[in-house]
Amino acid sequence: MSKAVDKESLYLALSAAGVALSACSLASVYLKPRRRYAEEVRHWPDVEYVLSRAQAIQQEQSSSVLTVQHLNSALENVQGGGGGGGGGDQLTKAELEATMKQMLMPPGAGMDGESVLDKFTNDLTAAARRGELDPLVGRDGELRRLSHILLRRTKNNPVLVGEPGVGKTAIVEGLAQRIVAGDVPPGLLGAALLELDLAALAAGCMMPGEFEERLKAVCVEVAESPRKIILFIDDIHNLVPNAAQQGASMLDGSAILKPALARGSLRCLGCSSPDKFKKTIEKDPGLERRFQQVAVDAPSVEQATSILRGLRPRYERHHGITISEAALLAAAQLSARYISGRHLPDKAIDCLDEAAAQVKMEAGSAPEALDALNRKVTTLQTELGQLASRAGEDSSDGSGSSGSSFLANLARARGSGHYCCKCAQAVRVQLAELQEQQAVLAAEVAAEKEAEQDLQDLRNNVLRLRFEVDYASRSDGRPDAPGDDVAASLAEKQEQLAEAQAAVQAAESASSGRHLRSQVVTEHDITRVISKWTGIPISKLVSSERERLLGLSAELHKRIIGQEDAVNAVATAVQRSRADLSDPNGPIASFMFLGPTGVGKTELAKALAAFLFNTEDAMVRLDMSEYMEKHSVSRLIGTPPGYVGYEEGGLLSDAVKRRPYSIVLLDEVEKAHADVFNVLLQILDDGRVTDNQGHTVSFKNCVIIMTSNLGSAQIFEHLPSDSREDLKARVMAEVKAHFRPEFVNRVDEFIVFEPLVRSQIRDIVGLRATALVERVAAQHIRMLLADSALDFLAAKGFDPVFGARPVKRALQRELQTLLAQALLRGEFVEGDTILVEAAPDGSCLMLRKGSSSSTRQQLQQTLAGGKPPAAAAAAANGDANGDAAAGGGAPVPPGKKKVIRVVKKKSSGGGQLNGAANGSANGSAANGKAANGQSMSRSSSSGGLHSVPLPLGAVDSDAE
């Protein structure tokens, strides 16, 4: 192989550098065959000629440095060089020179003299002239502040800082509209507001520094432009990499912007959020001092309503519907109240937009009345076809499809084709009537659609004329306005606008009586959207809370037995909050429930959650015994930065962020570490807390409930002669000894729960038994409890120390086990009625079967008398003990085998239960005979007698 350097070797070296291949690939040339040819290394003595030719090309292009691009161009001048294309694709010298010229151009320059501003920016002032921007309502203070900063000599670079959704971009678009309208200071008249497209600026940047070079070209063109240009950069923090991105291949344009921003040659307008601005721009003091911050706060509900009024014509035009004033008010108020984590006016606008889209979609379908007629017509047409086919068949043929109609089945039963013809004629008459109604209704719907389309066209015409009149009136008299043509047609356009508005009013009044297809967004449509977003039922959103709040105490007493003072204190605190009389900067209310275990502290919190937020799941429950260590405080609001689990957040802060309308229950709060109360101080006082990531979590829509067993000893030692004030004073003394004064002073109410007495335990048994009765009813079996059963369960479940908690265990042990075994043995089936009563000796409960007809009548009498459902045995069984004695039955212990023979007997009586109609036992029943039409069953002698009343006509059977 020769060691001489030829032009093929030179081409391979350029190819290895990637320059020649890049240029040829831009020209769409296939180089593989030529590369194989070059690798053969043929000897050519004209390398010096290539170098001299490259130097000449350098001089022709006035380049100061000889580059590999010049060498690659010189190779094309040598016949048979390696730069040519292979196959049918030939790369000409002119094409390669054009490609090389393009590669030598700065990255920011456009093709064929295209301006970099045209390539990387969007003209907002031109969009405002075309009427493409939404109108801006309010924000006069922010716009005035922007104008002041932009007119400064140096550091004339405002940056709008506000949370996402508060309207920062809308303010910039409003500035563009005012510039077009001439409603700005003279220094801003005729200015061009250009939005920098960062995505287009960064697209295709492969080499380091290429993004910065493009940004530099933009800044240079803005500074050298004869126009007054304001460069708008949305999310300006994206130009500066944060600390975590330093050193990576990230885009950094701060060094390019600093000189131009300081000199005042570049007027830049930016937008950013507070946290992003702090993490990026404020980290660089040299960049931060060149910007002037303009704070943008979220508007109030009234201001948001005004913004929605200004945007209403745009959304009505887009969706082709009408938006009522009530819908605007509901969108602003309900979104502000129920949607957290977002800001006005963005969430209100989104709610209104989705509601309008929902109404438009529903209006596009057929009305309910027309849809019902269509279904009836389809059904009759199917029946008519079946009758017509049947009429031609043999009358003796009795076969037919199982899916035929009633008339067709009747015709086959008659076996007569003539009868089928008569039925078909009747169906034709009915079908003709329905088709006539269908045609009339369809014509009304079509006319309504046509009228709606005409109305929409008129509204669009009004919007167009209104924009033209507004633009013409503001442009008239401006020095830079065309003036003559626009001002001459101003009066004509105003006249056309008045005529169009009159036409719209006439069309709206003409269509006001139509109701087939709703074309109006109402308050109900807004509540449907809010309900879908938040999961709150619509009834809770639209119903007036005044009546509900006045009945709060009664609602809570349906689940809480006794504890009058505790329930009334909670109810009054919530009523004060909902009447807007409590502190708006704190939570709805904060309570500390004090008392022994099992007296209803947690149950009251669940009942309050169900009332306020319609579900018991709207409760954030934390067991404070898990926060006994000092380091466990971080679990509430999150681990500090630098520790494991920093990204996971806190249990309390994240739970409230996910469900801002909830009950926060801190169970057994006295067991938590003292540092935990430092976190609770801010929550109880200001209704907010800052988590480990710097996000503010609001507790203003929460009810804080803390439970504690402090003072239980004083409560049990309380004498009946002592007053409640003395008892609460002794309990509060122990509370103040345990908690610090600043914590005690921030709790709204300290509520003392008293121990439960036996009568209250009996009522709690009735509530718990009612839940069991409902579960049994799901199996289509009725169950009634006698007073004796309730007394028995209350005696078994009463313990002054443990409160109502033993009631659940007593129900499971004494009733549920007995009932489960009886059901598994098949003693009770669907449709039966189970009567539960205590044994005569009071040792256990016993079950017996009752008549469904008689017990239904007695249950209705019981409910009419106002007794609890679980206590219906008094009316269903009369004297339970006497009835048991009459039957001679003895309770059957759980698990013991019992054989019952059911005997069928006939009687002319009314079939009432023995002892139930008269309320006492009778002698005939005691002798084992049927009384008053009663059927009796007798157990075997080994199992003892067990009275089982049965309905008349029962089938004889043996049950084991």
Keywords, separated by commas or semicolons:
6 domains; Rossmann fold; 960 residues; 9% strand; 6-stranded mixed beta sheet; Helicase, Ruva Protein, domain 3; 5-stranded parallel beta sheet; 42 helices; disordered C terminus; alpha/beta; extended
| Overall pLDDT score | 72
According to CATH, the fold-level topology of the largest domain is Rossmann fold
**Order of strands in the sheet with most strands:** 1-3-4-5-2-6
CATH-defined architecture of the largest domain: 3-Layer(aba) Sandwich
Q: What amount of the residues lies in strands?
A: 5-15%
The proportion of residues forming helix, as a percent range, comes to 40-55%
Kindly provide the name of the CATH class of the largest domain.
Answer: Alpha Beta
Cα shape: extended
Unreliable parts: 17-43, 79-90, 106-112, 243-250, 394-404, 476-483, 858-960
SS-based class: alpha/beta
Distance between the termini: 108 Å
Number of strands: 21
Describe the structure.
The protein has 42 helices and 21 strands. A six-stranded mixed β-sheet has the order 1-3-4-5-2-6. Strands 10-11-14-9-15 form a five-stranded parallel β-sheet, with helices on both faces. It has 960 residues and is of the alpha/beta class. The protein folds into six domains: 7-104, no CATH class; 116-295, 3-Layer(aba) Sandwich (Rossmann fold), CATH 3.40.50.300; 301-364, Helicase, Ruva Protein, domain 3 (Orthogonal Bundle), CATH 1.10.8.60; 368-488, no CATH class; 545-752, Rossmann fold (3-Layer(aba) Sandwich); 758-959, Helicase, Ruva Protein, domain 3 (Orthogonal Bundle).
